[in-house]
Amino acid sequence: MRVGLVGFAGSGKSTLFELLTGTASDPGKVHSGQVGVAVLADPRLDFLASLHAPKKVTPATVEFLDTPGLIPGTHGDNPQRLAVIREGDALLIVLNGFTGGDPAAELASFREEMLFADLGTVTNRVERLEASVKKRRPDWEMQEKELAILKRVQATLEDGKFVATLGLSADEKKPLRSFGLLTDKPQVVVLNAAQGEEIPARLKELAADALAIDAKLELDLAQLDLEERAAFMTDLGVTELGRDRIIRAAYDAVGIITFFTAGEPEVRGWNLERNATAVEAAGKIHTDLAKGFIRAEVTAYDDLHAAGTLKEAKAKHLQRLEGKEYLVKDGDIIYFRSAV
Ligand SMILES: Nc1nc2c(ncn2[C@@H]2O[C@H](COP(=O)(O)OP(=O)(O)OP(=O)(O)O)[C@@H](O)[C@H]2O)c(=O)[nH]1
Ligand SMILES: [Mg+2]
Questions:
Q1: H or E stretch covering 80
Q2: CATH fold label, 275-338
Q3: What pLDDT digit, counting tens, does each position of 304-333 carry?
Q4: Which of 144, 175, 270, 282 could join 290 via S-S bond, C-beta 3.0 to 4.6 A?
Q5: Which tens digits make up the pLDDT trace of 86-126?
Q6: Which helix (H) or strand (E) holds 96?
Q7: Whose CA is nearest to atom 8 of ligand 1?
């Protein structure tokens, strides 16, 4: 899973990138998208590790992409700057809340840039297809189908609406996939503002789930040792860090859950699309495990946690045998029986 940090120049993307991934932003890499890996702190993993005493503990991770900031005013080369994140699964829009601007207006104009960039991509393709369909090339019927969908998309964008609002089926979306349309991606809106600042009502109207973080302060805090950090947090009245909330929001926006494998060699968290099946989960680990799938032995995390020990879990028969089509739940601990 890959999430692009986007926004206007100077909104704090690179600061947030460093906070999320622990990697400093490199100006030489940002223009083509710099990738960093973030670990979601997950207490469930710690509990599983305490049960199994494994050689290795591997948390689930998400990749964040630092991208070049857009220049306000004219569209300019903003579409090219945004092209860096066309392959991402979601956008994390970072708004500047620390230099006295209006973040709601900033979000509105950023969304206009997204619409403008998508409209450019789609219009380009529509024009090519129209020319091509006229020539009645061998695959013109396929192209005509694609053209019909693209024209609906184009009209939606011209109307100032996001492609996501069209509710296209998976089949209809197929020809759109290679364009990576920005307004079809899930979004997380983050206001980068001084600690304790409220999210303005006007911003909430545009993005009900917007989150606030003081990226610079949290980055400074992250550089302290635990004791100092706790003292500073008490002084500043910080009770919850924004970093973990943001990563969790990214998981939710993309629709990713975590399942676990747990044993002596390794306790590990894995990302999985919500509503994926047991055999798809096996495929995340290894294609052979999916091919030879026999059964999944599944324990719900909450049940195991309530039982407290592996022995107690066994006595209570918490483990269920599930087939290929079982829909994996967030927190499931799975052992795959496989013939390969
Ligand atoms: N006061 C304050 N300053 C911040 C905050 N976040 C970032 N800054 C400062 O704002 C400036 C720009 O931050 P960056 O993280 O580089 O912003 P950016 O979005 O990556 O900028 P571009 O890459 O140029 O688009 C830096 O000097 C940061 O130290 C914040 O939450 N509060
Ligand atoms: Mg930057």
A1: helix 78-83
A2: Ubiquitin-like (UB roll) (3.10.20)
A3: 999 999 999 999 999 999 999 999 999 999
A4: 282
A5: 999 999 999 999 999 999 999 999 999 999 999 999 999 99
A6: strand 90-97
A7: 12
Residue 136's CB: how many other CB atoms inside 10 A? 10
Any idea what DSSP says for residue 270?
Answer: E
Question: Per DSSP, what are the bridge partners of residue 335?
Answer: 297
Q: Which residues contact 26 (CB under 8 A, 6 or more apart)?
A: 34
Q: Contact 278/293 with Cβ under 8 angstroms? A: yes
Tokens of 218: 């949290």
Q: Measured between alpha carbons, how far is 36 from 48 in angstroms, rounded to an integer?
A: 26
State the DSSP code for 180: -
Determine phi and psi for 199, rounding to 5 degrees.
Answer: -80, 120
Hey, what are 96's tokens? 């500047």
Question: Residue 122 and residue 91: Cα distance in Å, rounded?
Answer: 19
Taking the centre of ligand 1 as the mean of its atom positions, its distance from the CA of residue 23, in whole angstroms, is 15
Q: How distant, in Å, are the alpha carbons of 89, 166, 209 from that of 187? A: 9, 16, 10
Q: What is the pTM of this model?
A: 0.93
How far apart are the CA of 9 and the centre of ligand 1, in A? 8
Instruction: For the beta carbon of residue 328, count every other beta carbon within 10 angstroms.
Output: 26
CA of 30, closest atom in ligand 1: 23
Q: E strands of 40-89, at which residues?
A: 56-58, 61-66
